[in-house]
Design goal:
four-stranded antiparallel sheet; four-stranded mixed sheet
């Protein structure tokens, strides 16, 4: 087998790693205009994407394949357009996720907790974990085909990015935008750390609504006695979390609620504790919910916290880091939160303070990572004053400096930033960027510097210690677009490639990450971090369910790629997507697209075989053929040396229409629809139609070379259009095509092609020529005629090998039909010696089936379609079967069934009877004919 002879089957398992190695070793992933190399042209505008950095937890999921494939499509498209492209790869240290994985691994393999190891040794273990799983995750990203510049790969905890994080923190600290203080935060008892609002997932779960009495303090009764009294005046209150009663500091009612207005300003007693708290009025209270009275727990509910701030209420905390009751809970101190709930409610029932319980659907907050119920609680944490940053980020989208695709997500973006709260950035973890603040043990003040200090900046004491917390992972991720390019240093990469061009990610992290990158980019660089945000949807199961590993509904992409090939999975995800909309995936779709890759391969084998056939022509045969060079058919008045056949003109016009449409769709970010149209063109127009006509044309020596040139050109263009979507099979096949052309008499077609498709030029759209529409219309008419005959053959169950007679009245298209008679006969299965084409017919031929295709009248003699005796027997058999059903249904409907059965059932049987009668009528008519 020569270097341009294709194997019979496409072997993606051996091809994909070989092709990727070729790309990487060839340096094709590096930008063509590199500011660090000679010949750099600063005037060329680059196209830049910073990859959403996957976590170093070693688990590739379908969402990774989606964003890698989508971004790779964008990068390959712009690279082929001749634009200097840079795709910066990297990984995220993922503080909570990674620490959790390593802690589980230590417990499973060594039965050791991190506290037993100590901070320093534990972090060493995490770095070892990172080294192992970083290699796994980057290898998997390569397997997807990512054409990243791996020489520029970054990690959020590497030296350069750590410097950027320190610089960003210090700048915000010096501006007074970072502060530390007690605030209500989300606390994860399992992870033992604060988590942000965005790291809390809510789920509807069954629970209870507990109704109880808040006893009003009588003027003549001591408080110490009142809390045990169940008689007298009380305010009924409902809660879903009875244990938090222990930290209540008020009961609130609506100021216009006639039921309770008389109690405003009086005191009530906390059940079982005897603590006196006020009754307050606040318009936040919903009179229609529960009892219309609301217990206020500022230390354990965000809404209550806001009410408490308005009314100057004390803030009590009744849970500790372990979610156990603190001394605030009096006799319940030390109990687990849920054990406390049970015991407190039992005690209140015994004291006559409980009214009732009723089922209630709760919206439960759970930790995104740990899964346990999150507790709102007061904690000393670090925060960013976010409003000034949010205002700038809002303006950047509103004034058009940043465009969000699809546009409807702009409203979601605005709503979140307009209602944003200060960002809790501290985490009680060991793995991550440690907060660069030192406390003086002597004067008690803080020191925050760009380099680790040795003494207090205020009193000079060396008796200092660093804050033990680390920064929220999203703090470093927010700097990603510019920190990866060298910021805060003015590196050549930063000056040329920043701002980046595109931020492509899933819509569900618009707030987690995208908004923070915009805020940080504007704050620290004075520029937007990217021009466009493209949001893809989530990938769901075939039934539309959210994928869940724990529920067994996830699709592991690695076995799918191993079974069907990377191109098949990429094509499925990309062509099935539209901006911002979720898409469903099924293995049947992936299998179908594996078949498409095979279709591409087989069409390529045919074209390359045809090229070899041109090379095998004798000198005498070639001497009889005019100059084979083909001028550009789209230039005005251009004519090839041999007139193009109708099929040649049609496929070229269809190809140019496709190129124009794909370019329009790519510019509109409609990549899925573009892929679908390329698929339809290749499978139907090219492989199913033109290739079949080409086989006929190549039987004539004078048409052979012209046809092969057209085949090669169309295949080349299709492979270029498909390359951003299915890079492996197209690169492999294009390489064979290039080598076959260079080894053939048609080498001039490929003399300017580069050595690899990845850097070949993108097909540029050209204006439509005057001749295109007419040629497309003519060939479409020929297709309609062939389809009509094929459909009738299938209906009559005519053997594919049988050639039948046919007569066509063409009218004004008679000359066209005569020119295309050989094509029609070959593709419709017509016997050329029994094929008649006339302008018109004086009368309809007897015993014939009449078909209409546009202006054409087609007649197929029944005698030619099938053996008349066999056809008569078939029709009689079908008629007898229909009559049996008619008799049965008439008997059924004539019985008491019609009066006893449900009306819809009776109607259905009547409809069946009518259908069988209609069928019988048609069969009788066919028999009469």
């Amino acid at each position: 087998m020569t270097e341009y002879q294709l194997p019979k089957a496409y072997d993606f398992k051996s091809t994909e790693p070989r092709i990727y190695k070729m790309w990487e070793q060839g340096g094709y992933f590096r930008p063509s205009n590199d500011p660090n190399k000679p010949g750099f042209d600063p005037t060329k505008k680059p196209f830049v994407i910073s990859i959403p950095p996957p976590n170093v937890t070693g688990e590739l999921h379908i969402g990774h394949v989606m964003f890698v494939a989508m971004e790779d499509l964008m990068i390959r498209y712009h690279r082929m357009k001749g634009v200097p492209t840079l795709w910066v790869p990297g990984t995220d240290h993922a503080g909570i996720a990674t620490q959790l994985q390593v802690e589980k691994d230590l417990l499973r393999t060594e039965e050791v907790r991190r506290e037993e190891l100590g901070r320093e040794k534990f972090i060493e273990r995490v770095w070892s974990w990172k080294a192992k799983y970083h290699h796994i995750i980057t290898s998997q990203i390569r397997q997807i085909g990512a054409s990243c510049d791996w020489e520029r790969e970054r990690f959020t905890l590497d030296e350069g990015l750590s410097k950027a994080v320190r610089e960003a923190f210090v700048r915000l600290y010096e501006k007074g935008l970072i502060y530390r203080g007690p605030r209500l935060i989300n606390w994860s008892p399992g992870l033992k750390t604060a988590v942000s609002d965005l790291e809390v997932e809510y789920s509807e779960e069954p629970g209870k609504l507990y109704y109880f009495k808040y006893m009003l303090v009588p003027e003549t009764l001591k408080v110490s006695e009142a809390f045990r009294v169940s008689k007298g005046e009380f305010i009924p209150v409902a809660t879903t979390r009875p244990e938090t009663i222990l930290a209540d500091t008020a009961v609130a009612v609506h100021p216009d609620d006639g039921r309770y207005v008389k109690f405003i300003g009086r005191k009530v007693v906390v059940p079982m504790l005897g603590r006196e708290i006020p009754v307050i009025a606040d318009e936040y209270v919903t009179r229609e919910f529960g009892t219309g009275a609301l217990k206020i727990t500022p230390g354990h509910d965000p809404n209550d916290y806001d009410i408490g701030q308005r009314h100057g209420l004390p803030v009590l905390s009744m849970l500790d880091r372990e979610a156990k009751v603190t001394d605030t809970g009096g006799p319940y101190a030390g109990l687990d939160r849920f054990a406390c709930r049970k015991k407190l409610w039992a005690d209140m029932q015994a004291a006559g303070l409980a009214i009732k319980e009723e089922p209630y659907t709760l919206n439960i907050p759970r930790s995104q990572r740990g899964g346990e119920i999150v507790e709102p609680m007061i904690s000393e944490q670090w925060f960013v004053k976010i409003q000034p940053l949010a205002d700038a980020a809002l303006a950047a989208v509103r004034d058009g400096r940043i465009k969000i695709i699809p546009e409807r997500f702009e409203k979601v973006y605005y709503n979140w930033l307009e209602n944003i709260k200060d960002w809790c950035i501290s985490r009680q973890l060991w793995w991550g960027h440690r907060i660069p603040v030192w406390y003086c043990n002597d004067c008690g003040r803080q020191t925050c510097t760009r380099a680790d200090p040795t003494r207090c900046a205020h009193c000079g004491s060396q008796n200092i210690h660093q804050d033990p917390d680390v920064l929220d992972t999203w703090f470093s991720s927010g700097l990603w677009p510019f920190s990866t390019l060298g910021w805060p240093e003015e590196t050549p990469d930063y000056k040329y490639f920043y701002p980046t061009t595109m931020m492509e990610t899933a819509y569900d992290i618009l707030f987690f990450w995208v908004a923070r990158m915009i805020m940080d980019g504007l704050e620290f660089t004075g520029k937007v971090p990217f021009e466009t945000v493209y949001l893809h949807g989530l990938v769901r199961t075939e039934e539309g369910q959210k994928m869940s590993k724990s529920k067994g509904t996830g699709v592991d992409p690695l076995p799918v790629m191993d079974k069907y090939g990377t191109d098949a999975l990429r094509f499925t995800l990309l062509v099935g997507s539209t901006p911002g909309n979720d898409s469903n995936i099924s293995l049947k779709k992936v299998e179908g697209n594996r078949n498409f890759a095979n279709k591409i391969w087989n069409a390529g084998r045919f074209v390359i075989s045809a090229l070899q056939g041109v090379g095998d022509q004798s000198a005498g045969e070639r001497a009889q053929i005019p100059n084979p060079q083909l001028p550009n058919p789209l230039l005005p008045n251009s004519q090839p040396p041999i007139p193009w056949s109708l099929a040649d003109s049609w496929i070229w016009a269809r190809l140019q229409s496709l190129v124009r449409e794909v370019e329009r769709l790519f510019q509109a970010y409609q990549y899925g629809e573009a892929g679908r149209q390329i698929y339809e063109f290749f499978w139907s127009d090219f492989a199913d139609w033109y290739v079949e006509v080409a086989k006929l044309q190549m039987q004539r020596a004078q048409n052979r070379e012209q046809t092969v040139v057209t085949l090669a050109r169309v295949l080349d263009s299709c492979l270029r259009l498909l390359h951003p979507i299915t890079p492996f099979v197209t690169e492999e096949l294009w390489g064979y095509l290039r080598r076959a052309l260079l080894a053939s008499p048609l080498s001039g077609l490929a003399k300017d092609w580069p050595e690899a498709l990845i850097i070949a030029s993108w097909p540029e759209p050209r204006p439509e020529e005057d001749w295109e529409a007419a040629k497309v219309a003519d060939f479409t008419l020929i297709q309609d005629a062939i389809r009509s005959i094929r459909n009738q053959r299938a209906e009559k169950k005519v053997s594919p090998a049988k050639r039948i007679p046919a007569t066509i009245a063409g009218g004004t298209k008679t000359d066209l039909l005569k020119e295309q008679a050989a094509v029609i006969a070959a593709l419709a299965g017509i016997d050329p010696s029994l094929f008649t084409i006339l302008h018109s017919l004086p009368s309809k031929p007897e015993n014939s089936i009449a078909l209409v295709a546009g202006p054409l009248e087609i007649y197929l003699p029944l005698s030619g379609m099938a053996d008349l005796d066999e056809e008569r027997n078939r029709l009689q058999k079908e008629l007898a079967e229909s009559q049996v059903q008619i008799d049965r249904l008439e008997k059924l409907l004539g019985s008491d069934f019609a009066s006893k059965a449900p009306a819809p059932v009776v109607q259905k049987e009547r409809e069946r009877l009518a259908a069988f009668k209609e069928t019988a009528g048609k069969l009788k008519a066919q028999l009469a004919g």
